[in-house]
From TrEMBL:
MsrB domain boundaries: 17-141
Name of the featured protein: peptide-methionine (R)-S-oxide reductase
Pfam family name, one: SelR
Keyword hit for Oxidoreductase: yes
Organism per entry: Rhodococcus artemisiae
Residues spanning the signal sequence: none
Catalytic activity: L-methionyl-[protein] + [thioredoxin]-disulfide + H2O = L-methionyl-(R)-S-oxide-[protein] + [thioredoxin]-dithiol
Keyword vocabulary terms for this entry: Oxidoreductase
EC number(s) reported in the record: 1.8.4.12
MF term (GO), any: peptide-methionine (R)-S-oxide reductase activity
InterPro entries named among the record's database cross-references: Met_Sox_Rdtase_MsrB, Met_Sox_Rdtase_MsrB_dom, Mss4-like_sf
């Protein structure tokens, strides 16, 4: 898999802006719905090693698994692959004078973070899904 963005299907979960604001905290809303970024090394899952599934905090869709999480020492949780290839949408992001690939939840199109490749991490995909902790909810393995 490459980080080439592909066409976006319509979101399965939709809410009005007011409904999203009522459902999410202001900090969650800023990241998930306005493509913000939490400060590095401040997120609750940056160094977590708990086994489980990481869901979208906005809609509950499964996005990542702890078995694909690794320590990249970049300040945000890092994964080398989503749980399923269609769990996320990749979108070209040319904000802040850079060209990056944004990662969105495929179910509700909430902002998760960005994906980078070719950085030399010893992972099966050579990719780093750099994801905001506040975009996720960890469901520990039973």
């Amino acid at each position: 898999m490459t980080t080439t963005p592909r066409s976006e299907p319509a979101p399965k979960v939709t809410h009005s802006d007011d409904e999203w604001r009522a459902k999410l905290t202001p900090a969650e809303y800023a990241v998930l719905r306005q493509a913000g970024t939490e400060r590095p090394y401040t997120g609750e899952y940056t160094d977590t090693e708990t086994e489980g599934v990481y869901e979208c905090r906005a809609c509950g869709a499964e996005l990542f698994r702890s078995s694909e999480k690794f320590h990249s020492h970049c300040g945000w949780p890092s994964f080398f692959d989503p749980s399923e290839s269609d769990a996320v949408i990749l979108r070209t992001d040319e904000s802040l004078g850079m060209r990056r690939v944004e990662v969105l939840c495929a179910s509700c199109h909430s902002h998760m973070g960005h994906v980078f490749e070719g950085e030399g991490y010893p992972t099966p995909t050579d990719q780093r899904y750099c994801i905001n902790s506040i975009s996720l909810r960890l469901v520990p393995k039973a």
